[in-house]
Amino acid sequence: MSTTTPAAEAAPTVHPLTTREADALIEAAARAAEGLGVRGSVTVLDAGGNLLGFRRDDAAVLISGETSTRKAYTAVQLDTPTADLVDLVRPDGLFHTLPTALDRPLLFLAGGVPLHRDGRLIGALGFGGGSPEQDHRIVLAAIAESGLA
Questions:
Q1: Are 85 and 93 in contact (CB under 8 A)?
Q2: What is the pLDDT of residue 11?
Q3: End-to-end C-alpha distance for the chain, whole angstroms
Q4: Which end of the chain has fewer beta carbons closer than 10 Å to its terminal beta carbon, N or C?
Q5: The whole model's pTM is what?
């Protein structure tokens, strides 16, 4: 006799993002940034918004650490790439008050992307230091190299 419910048996087990995967994402982002000549910071968060990994290039501006972390946090909280949210926070946008409505600030600039495994959110990757377009390209390249989406 099974002690699990049918719903529990049907739910797939989703493996959380590991520190090894976070390290691989950081390395991939560093390579992508170097390829573009960008000096910046990269942040990896788990699905709860907790820090799994972080690296700031020695030549990066200090604020890039804050922006990479806020971009990753925004992506994980809203489960959406930050590049897709920019227009929503403009003065006439649906979420125009959201950036200041929360205790922990969100950042609506391209460069943060949620990470999924088997269709479930497992974390987010953020990069800061280049233009928003460069930061987004760096994150996408790192995710493609890692096989996470």
A1: no
A2: 63
A3: 38
A4: N
A5: 0.87
SS3 call for 121: strand
- 10 vs 64: CA distance, rounded Å: 42
Average pLDDT, rounded, for the chain:
89
* Predicted local confidence at residue 13, as pLDDT: 84
Confidence tier at 105 by pLDDT (50, 70, 90): confident
> Do 147 and 134 form a contact (C-beta atoms < 8 A)?
no
Question: Tokens representing 16?
Answer: 């959380």
Closest CA to 139 of 20, 49, 59, 40: 40
Give the list of residues 6+ apart from residue 113 with CB closer than 8 angstroms, or none: 75, 81, 82, 124, 125, 126, 136, 139, 140, 143
Token code pair at residue 41? 């910071």
